[in-house]
Specification:
Elements: H1 13-21, H2 28-45, H3 51-54, E1 60-63, H4 70-81, E2 85-89, H5 105-125, H6 127-142, H7 166-178, E3 186-191, H8 209-223, E4 228-233, H9 234-249, H10 252-266, E5 268-272, H11 288-304, E6 307-310, E7 313-316, E8 321-326, H12 338-342, E9 346-349, H13 355-363, H14 369-378, E10 383-386, H15 388-404, H16 411-420, H17 422-427, E11 435-438, H18 440-457
Parallel strand pairs: 1-8, 1-9, 2-5, 5-8, 10-11
Antiparallel strand pairs: 3-4, 6-7
Helix pairs in contact: 1-2, 2-4, 5-9, 5-10, 6-9, 13-15, 15-16, 15-18
């Protein structure tokens, strides 16, 4: 097996924080922690000798209420590193021996994701050759039968009054295909079924999910591997042929090997709601607290470093980066078992968001809500603009709703924006060419009843 490659990006911690700033407002301490963790992976790959294997990632616990950016920071970090990333909820796991998902399933899911990522990248690398092959296959399907076998149909591609050589006919069809003159034509082609979404479900006991996956693969090979004929438009047939040819050009064994390496050296697991499996110190020892502690003990070997069997091969978890997160309202990090606490040496607290943060979130990030709604309505030929006062008014209402009810952080902005633009979104198809400016007066007019409704809803059963 070849040496695993280093992470694909060598951004400095300062550059990583700068990239995260484009999508997440504030939370400087959390951004610095994950930036250092990512840079340490780059550094580790450049350490020579046996010491490199001894350097383990410094896992992180993010402490903060919902909607302040914990998941988004981890997700954007993985995107920067082109790393396999999976988010799992600790509360979904159960102790071995109980009904539910076992903790090893997150590593298997991560391996599946890495294989899909590697397959897509390898197919993209050979797509030019695959398209050439697909074009030849499509031309074979489009060409009429030789005259010796059957008379040519008048008006069919290549059937001219003057006899032409097969090469000239094929060249003419190729030009027509590339110029898009055949896009409206239907052709009958034989394509292999895709294996991306198996329709068969195999139920297996906890801990044996891998056996179920292998059974699905086996049954798919026995019954689902036959090609079938379909009629489709020329562009769709060309795309189907290209995907099929790209699959033939890549080495599936090499993909699995590289995917396993990618998980082992660059995988990121975001373990959300970890506070839900913490047993409170003041709680009676028994019942659900025992089960929560059991989940923690099952998590411990995965986080410490162990080997998990997947259908793509054994995966070692020693160098996977684990980022745990939780609100820790009813519990605190010290309520986790000491062994698990020791595997998360870095702890960062994320700040609650207020009115000023909401105003920035609305407008500053590259994927801000304002930009999203503008892009959506632009598809209906409706131009939407926001004044600074309008954004401040939206932020103020969102902050007030969080203070009066449950604080759900920036997610409150989604509720407010939907209520604000409800009528416009409904009538947009009838407003083609219109322009609308959202200012403070518009916001107050549309959302005047939102705070009142919020108060009333607290007393409705």
């Amino acid at each position: 097996m070849s040496a695993p490659e280093a992470p694909r990006l060598s951004l400095t911690p300062r550059e990583i924080v700068s990239e995260l700033d484009r999508y997440v407002v504030g939370q400087r301490e959390a951004k610095r922690a994950v930036a250092i963790a990512l840079r340490n992976r780059w550094r580790r790959q450049r350490v020579r000798g046996e010491l490199r294997d001894e350097i383990s990632p410094k896992n992180i616990i993010m402490i903060g209420p919902t909607g302040v950016g914990k998941t988004e920071i981890a997700r954007r970090l993985a995107k920067l590193a082109h790393a396999p990333f999976i988010k799992v909820e600790a509360s979904k796991f159960t102790e071995v021996g109980y009904v539910g998902r076992d903790v090893e399933s997150m590593v298997r899911d991560l391996a599946d994701l890495a294989v899909r990522m590697e397959t897509a990248e390898q197919k993209a690398a050979v797509m030019e050759r695959a398209q050439e092959r697909a074009e030849e296959r499509l031309l074979d399907a489009l060409l009429p039968q030789p005259a010796s076998a059957a008379p040519a149909t008048p008006g069919a591609p290549g059937a001219d009054s003057t006899p032409q050589s097969a090469g000239e006919t094929r060249a003419k069809l190729r030009r027509m295909l590339r110029d898009g003159k055949l896009d409206g034509r239907e052709v009958e082609v034989e394509v292999a079924p895709t294996r991306d979404a198996p329709s068969l479900s195999v139920l297996t006991p906890q801990g044996l999910e891998e056996m179920g996956a292998q059974m699905r693969d086996l049954i798919g090979d026995l019954f689902g591997g036959r090609s079938r004929k379909r009629r489709m438009k020329v562009p769709a047939a060309l795309a189907a042929f290209a995907s099929e040819e790209a699959g033939k050009l890549v080495d599936s064994d090499a993909i699995r090997e590289r995917a396993v390496q990618r998980v082992e050296q660059g995988g990121i697991v975001f373990l959300d709601e970890v506070d839900k499996v913490a047993a409170r110190a003041d709680a009676a020892r028994g019942g659900p607290d025992i089960s929560r502690e059991g989940v923690q003990r099952d998590l411990l070997p995965i986080v410490e470093g162990s080997t998990v069997q997947t259908r793509h091969g054994p995966v070692r978890t020693d160098h996977i980066l684990f980022i745990a997160a939780g609100a820790f309202h009813a519990a605190k990090p010290a309520d986790l078992i000491p062994e698990l606490q020791g595997r998360f040496p870095i702890r960062v607290e994320l700040e609650s968001l207020g009115r000023g943060d909401f105003a920035r979130i609305l407008t500053e990030p590259k994927n801000s809500l304002v930009r999203q709604y503008q892009a959506l309505l632009e598809t209906e030929d409706v131009k939407l603009s926001f004044t600074e006062e309008g954004a401040q008014a939206i932020a103020a209402i969102a902050a007030q709703l969080n203070e009066r009810g449950n604080d759900i952080g920036a997610r409150r902005l989604h509720t407010v924006m939907e209520r604000l633009l409800d009528e416009l979104s409904f009538t947009a198809p009838d407003r083609g060419g219109a322009s609308l400016q959202v200012d403070a007066e518009f916001v107050q007019e549309r959302l005047a009843g939102l705070l009142r409704d919020e108060d009333i809803s607290r007393y409705i059963l």
